[in-house]
Write a structure and sequence with these properties.
By secondary structure, the chain is of the alpha/beta class. It contains nine helices and 16 strands. Helix 1 packs antiparallel against helix 3, helix 3 packs across helix 9 and helix 5 runs antiparallel to helix 6. The structure holds zinc ion.
């Protein structure tokens, strides 16, 4: 098969649904997108490996490699999209439409569209043997579990020196974001008749102590960790929901408290979990209840580019923008973990992501393609 034109590639990518969701009814396979990308990149001379995820083989990552040797540059993106409200769209989310100098479609900005730009950038280098490999990485399930990136980190692949993730950043290089932990505390006491408190152990009263302690923990974190590179320069802890008990005249036997923590670079989720567990122990002993802490979803660690990152400096020069931090999480911490100097930099705007009428402005396309070409020249030739 011959290589598709830019617009054909973009419209195929939008046509093929690849929603990922934690709700099983909405969740879809990303294999059709991965297979199509593999066919295209193979036609361009890349070596393609499709790697099904260990627990969900109907989902896969693609590693497409041109050239060989140590070092190298990765262009990475996710192949899944969030779910959509079709009734709120002016045109079909799965039909690429050009109007108002924009391309509309689900995933055009966040971020299947990035692969069409990458193909456009790569074309002129195909006849030239590369000194260091160029690797295109297409992942699964970024919008739901990040299991695609997690699987790669576990495999230790790919190995390269630099990685650019084309998430929507308005063509500004992003060198930092916070991490996210979502945790649940369960308190198991003993229910009983409310007329005599000694007939039970009130889980809600323990929850009160736990909440007070978490708020102290939060204040302590804010004292220990600060990073002026973020709009909110301290780690946050949000008490999100609480469920417990059933009736006013029954001692509350069980209580559950869900909260999140937004970590700063340098904080490790497992360490924080240990610290919280240590603090909960004496409360459980004093109240003679059982308290457990578990993660609702696996944590995404905070991300920060390497210190004095060569790639950050290069991207700042190419875009004319100082590197910034963002409030959303990406796959970047997993790629950092693989030892790659990682930056998030892509053509879309985050305001358009996860919205009806998601679009990519036409005037972003050529500048972004040129940035990608410059990076290939710098790191692969
Ligand atoms: Zn995204």
């Amino acid at each position: 098969m011959s290589q598709p034109t830019f617009q054909h590639a973009l419209s195929r990518l939008i046509e093929i649904p690849s929603v990922s969701s934690t709700l099983p009814d909405l969740d879809m396979s990303n294999l059709p997108v991965i297979n199509e990308l593999a066919v295209w990149f193979e036609a361009m001379g890349f070596q393609c490996e499709i790697q099904p995820l260990p627990d969900t083989p109907h989902k896969a990552n693609l590693i497409a490699t041109l050239g060989s040797g140590p070092g190298g540059l990765v262009f990475a993106g996710h192949t899944d999209t969030v779910p959509y409200d079709e009734s709120l769209w002016k045109s079909s989310p799965f039909a690429l439409e050009e109007r108002n100098n924009r391309f509309y479609g689900l995933g055009v900005c966040d971020m299947k569209g990035f692969f069409a730009l990458v193909m456009e950038a790569v074309r002129e280098f195909l006849p030239t043997p590369l000194k260091a490999p160029l690797i295109i990485l297409a992942t699964a399930d970024e919008e739901s579990s990040m299991n695609g990136a997690r699987a790669l980190a576990e495999l230790g692949r790919p190995k390269a020196r630099y990685a650019v993730i084309g998430e929507p950043t308005g063509m500004r290089p992003i060198h930092m974001h916070k991490g996210i932990m979502m945790e649940r505390i369960r308190i198991l006491g003993q229910s009983g008749h409310s007329s005599n408190p000694s007939l039970g152990r009130n889980a809600m009263e323990t929850a009160h102590k736990v909440i007070t302690d978490l708020m102290q923990f939060r204040a302590g974190m804010a004292e220990r960790y600060q990073n002026p590179g973020f709009t909110i320069p301290v780690p946050t802890l949000n008490l999100g929901c609480i469920h417990g008990g059933d009736n006013p005249n029954r001692i509350c036997g069980q209580c559950q408290l869900d909260f999140d923590i937004r970590t700063l670079p340098g904080m490790e989720s497992e360490q924080l979990r240990q610290q919280i567990r240590q603090r909960l122990k004496p409360i459980a002993e004093a109240d003679q209840v059982e308290i457990t802490l578990e993660s609702i979803t696996p944590a995404i660690e905070a991300f920060s580019s390497k210190e004095n990152s060569e790639l950050v400096v290069a991207c700042e020069k190419l875009t004319g923008h100082q590197a910034e931090s963002v409030a959303f999480a990406t796959e970047a911490p997993f790629f950092s973990q693989l030892g790659m100097d990682t930056v998030v930099l892509g053509p879309g705007d985050i305001d358009q992501a996860h919205q009806p009428d998601e679009y990519l402005s036409l005037d972003r396309i050529n500048p972004m393609v040129n940035i990608l070409k410059s990076l290939i020249r710098q790191y692969c030739l």
